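Lab notebook, bench 4. Still working through the backlog of constructs that have no structural model yet. Next entry is a single chain of 1155 residues. Request: give me the structure tokens for it.
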Amino acid sequence: LNEACSEGLDTTGKYDILKSVFRRTVEQATANCNISFVGLFAKLDYCIKEFQVPYSIASLLQMARKEMFPEFNRKEENSDNTMERNFPHNLKATALLVYHLCGKEEIPINLKLFFPKADRKSSWGKFSEKFLRVVVEKWDDDFIWATEEENGTTIQICYGKENHILTLNGKFSWQYLKDTLWQGAQLNLVRLRQDERGLYYLPELIILEPDYLVNITTIAGCFETYAESPFVNLINKLKPRQNTMPIHLGNFAGQMLDDTVHGRNITFDDSLKEFIKTNALNLISCQEFIHDFARFKNDAKIQKSNIEKLIGEDLKHDIGNYDTKDAILEPSFFSNILGIQGRMDFFYSQENNDNVNAPDNRYIIIEQKAGKAAFVPFSAPGYDPNVPEMKEQHHVQLILYRALFLYGFNKFANQISNFLLYSKYSKGLLAVPQNPQLLLSAIKIRNLIAWSEILYAKEGLDILQTLSPDMLNMKHTAGKLWENYTRPQLAEILDPIHEASPLERAYYLRFMQFIEEEALLSKVGNKTKESSGFASVWHDTIEEKKAAGNIYDNLSIAEYGEDEGGVFSVTLNFGDSVSTDTTNFRTGDIVILYYYGKGEVPDACAQMVFRGNIEEIREKSIVLRLRNSQTDRQIFEKHKDKLWAIEHDMFESSTSSLYCGMQSFLSATKRRRDLILLQREPKIDTTQTIKGSYGSFNTLVKRAKQARDLFLIIGPPGTGKTSFGLVNLLKEELLEPDSNILLLSYTNRAVDEICSKLVEIKEKENPEFDFIRIGSDLSCSKEYRPYLLREISAKSDKGGNALMQRIKQTRVFCGTTAALSASMALFKLKRFSLAIIDESSQILEPHLIGLLSAHEDGKEAIERFVLIGDHKQLPAVVQQTQEESVVKDEILNSIHLTDCRNSLFERLLNQFKTDSGYDSRFVYMLTKQGRMHQDIAAFPNQAFYGGKLQVVPLEHQLLPNMNVKSDNGIINMLATRRIAFVCSERPKYSLSGKTNSIEAEMIANTVYQIYQITKDRFSTEQTVGVIVPYRNQISTVRNAIDKFNIPILHDITIDTVERYQGSQRDYIIYGFTIQQKYQLNFLTDNVFEEDGMLIDRKLNVAMTRARLNLVLIGNPWLLKKNVTFKKLMDFIKEKNGFIDVSHDDYCNGNFSIPQ
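Model written out:
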């Protein structure tokens, strides 16, 4: 805080420090709290109450919070002059916050000198017309008392019968809220009024935990024939993925709707061919589709005819002429007000460009349903088989879409027209009426889903142990539908849970809770990472989003990718100030794209968003592949006076596959369940012999082949786990007749590497060899896209039978675990004798269980598996802290399940651990590394691998130091020291702890000198790489390098250690960056103990990326506070590689090397 008062800092610099201290203090105070908070307001409110901060000071803290961290969509912005004038007030508030939350140490006198002479008075702010955020304090049957966000004061809210608006004059009860509230819960009070006496507030809607966005289709799905309950959502999550003809017919009908809206003159047969090509795997594995293809075609033709008439003719007649160029297909909407999100099939807006709020603006929403409508008896008055009866589920969907516009975008009810398109029926276009009571029922289900999901994450899913079909039958349904269809379906889901052994059930329930908590934190944010969780889209300021690398803003559309199906991609130019280095976007990422007004703050909740994937990131532009093609560029052109922004999207379907995977574990073969739960020893067959010859890898291949259930390969850095381990096992398995092999990995980059080895086999050893890759083209390197299943399908002119033959004949399949989990239909067509799973130590156990549990006709889909990994390198990225993911159940501890964040690979390793290492029947450690020079390998070998690693040796690993005498100390250092530590001093002014200009300049000068000595062979992909812990530092380093005006240096990879895992460079420079003691926690957050050694996974990965030279740059006085860093520096001192000179002398090369 003293630094913030320095004369050399401008207003922005001062507030950067102030905001950092303010936020860090609150984060630190809530770090060990069991409550999940969303947003700074809720955290600060908790701290004020927990630390008993006096009201007068609490008011100052809330004013400072509101001014320094303004709501992202607030229209008025404080000017620099206002912020400068209020700096003393905000400084005092921040100092008082530190005082009350950090032990009440006296505020230094020299800091108090900058405080204001008198405190400013709190002014009663005006509540938002849309909604007010509050934190619950207490409640009774009729009232809630809560702290409101605007001014931090307590208000009284009526949710009982006296609130006639909320209860529809007594027709609807909100009493369910009484049992769902807790102290600290957040509510949105929508369209707030006061009673006539001004005693309490009367909201029109109350939304519980609004930052937990619930999908509209999820809410609608809870309106079942047997119940309206959040338990229906729980059951729906456990249902196995359906692969049925009605589902495929619905998907095809959706494609035909797109064709009609796009105005494509495409024949039915051509449209069907397109559909089969893009859905080939699911279609050819659907027996109903194969055996009754003629019926599918006939039903689809009827749907096509109905769609063309209902959308092309009837809709125009019902609403007046409309231009399909203004129709938008599958736009998405997020509402942080109502706590819901939705994706509409069809949206049409007719707006006055000069006034988007004009009363004559028109909005049309259409939701398509290809299946049956509600049952109507023949005896019903006016019965017409061509006119469908609306299902309640579908009604709920449209009512919630309408609510999005009414409450989220302040539109009028008479501006909105809702239609259901039942495309099975010739008169299937139904206007959907308003139903206020049904809306309140939908909001009730939304609130109960949010409540139950938070409860499952915190308390677990023990309800599943007692939940039965009869308990779920809350509407007391009877008859044939219940007895013959619904009840057996529910029993099929619940019976395996009830019939599981105590160990199986404990395992299932603990990982289900873990998945629930991960899903919750992915929405609302975690404790360990700033700007995490999807809620940061509306909670974070634009400055915070940029600092976290979570947004591209100030974009303008440059060009469109178009074909006969419409606009399929958009290219956007970056604004002048955008640096791609500071963002965390990568090719293939799922993102949202939306527009905003010039001079406004980007707000993804203010209008519709387009969903898509990043196809390419260029130096000055970015290309997005739209999830759904749009009919015409006019959809974008109408907003040509706007700017565009891109933010990260959240893909809930990936979580859905984890629930299904855990459910499938309970129905896996007993043999496989017992193996996973260590209830039987894996089978070994010593009679198995190898048929090929693999040199020094013969022992590995033989042991892996004799292991008939599972085998583990530990692959330390540079030991060739893919090039030799995986490839040799593959070659041996291919020598067995009728074998099929599945090659999996966690990242697409690793799958690309696997593909490179497979292509090498095809080109150099066996031209007949073939393989198929499962996954998306955007996540696959261009040279391997011809092997993608969807590419093979798209190029096939012989239909599904030819593709089925290709799949059956191909013996090798590869992909990420996520891609295969989304393509489980493959196991209906193929049984794999062996699965080799690379990067296994980075894969969480639930991500593998679904694949390992898959079975057909009582046989495992994967007969045996080999896991390759290294638990001493970086593990999977997990949202939960160790305290949250710890396993306390003794029955699970007995199978080495102690922390849900650990991989299956690590748990199995612990099972096979012996006094002398590991059981050699099941575990093999690769020990010959061919990457690092022996001098670089020395420290990680001793510190992390117990001295077990050896050099191969390859020529570069034994290279002597160069005999170079230069006037430049950096060149001499690189020539004579394979590993060096360069001391850096703390910058005089540090606007952020995540940037370090001193180190950036030292790194840049080192890169420049490396370029000078490697100029004739310099490669951006091989020569030099820079590793730093923070994204913000990436840009700082890049800018420092760019000052040398050498274009090729701009393209070298500067990234975090997490992104560097799996890569290597001749020269690696690792800049520690940190300047404060608290940052050591972040730098060493992946440390564990094994055999008396402290294993720092992050440092291990950083050091072992280097082949020829490793240069470490950091603050030794700070780093030595950590025992591993101190050992490293002592080691380097012994090797005379410790460089302690001033920043200027180092950058100028004006120093000599220690002898």
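Notes after review: The chain has 45 helices and 42 strands. The longest helix spans residues 293-319. Flag for follow-up if needed.
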